Amino acid sequence: QISNKKLTAFITGATSGIGLETAKLFAMNKIDLILCGRRQSALDTLKKQLSRHTKVHTLNFDVRDKDAVFEAIDSLPQDFSEIDILINNAGNAHGLNKFDEGDIEDWDAMLDINVKGLLYVSKAIIPTMIKNRAGHIINIGSIAGKEVYPMGNVYCASKYAVDAINQGMRIDLNQHNIRVGAVNPGLVQTGFSDVRFKGDKERAAKTYEGYEPLKPEDIADIIHFMVTRPYHVNIADLLVFPTAQASATIVNKQL
Ligand code: NDP
Ligand code: 8X3
Fold it and tell me: Which of 155, 160, 208, 231 is catalytic?
């Protein structure tokens, strides 16, 4: 029974936003952590801060790099090798352009990170869960994986893929007693828009003006709720908006 023992969680994209807040909340609740990202200084800071509350191990790899993913996960010390919870969170939108004006490098980045990176990490970790006949995988999808919106095109495609992978994992891992579920947020104020708009801070800030967006802490709270349900309860698919948002494109802005 997964809930009776001290848990170990593996979080991708732990250096910022949703992943970072999930790491903090898990640490406060004494869940051991394997935190991943590419920014070593952010990983070092997190390790220093969160080690006061729980055991923390950091891994620096780019999820696009298949060999690096498997080497990093193979390198885990014995006391971090039994992973109970996988939060597949690393990802971003790159650009917001009409399809015909899309940048091929942006398309590659979104499909390689949001889809293939998630697959590599999952492939490396699932065997432990199968061996243990227990585990919980939470895939961070998006409203963009439920609804295509103007100029969302390839980012939406990447998140529709996450939605399909979430369903496929749940079906195929069912016989192994593994829980699989997705959280699909609407607008959350994180580093997301800085990346989407390639460092244009003014444009990024505009995304969150005139209404109260979700905070990454809100999503962390939901993820923590999911992992703390009794083991026979699997929250399979959850869509969460800020109250001001009704769909991918309908946001009640008071500007
Ligand atoms: P942030 O930009 O704040 O965080 C993204 C995280 O992903 C960072 O920790 C980053 O770490 C990591 N990451 C990005 N690219 C790579 C890579 N190639 N290899 C390894 N790690 C990588 O954004 P959010 O917290 O908002 O995003 C987290 C997830 O939530 C994403 O999957 C996103 O699509 C999803 N989401 C976000 C929404 C929002 O409105 N913010 C809404 C719906 C879904 P580092 O740079 O150190 O590698
Ligand atoms: C992030 C939310 O609406 O920018 O996935 O696609 S949105």
Answer: 155
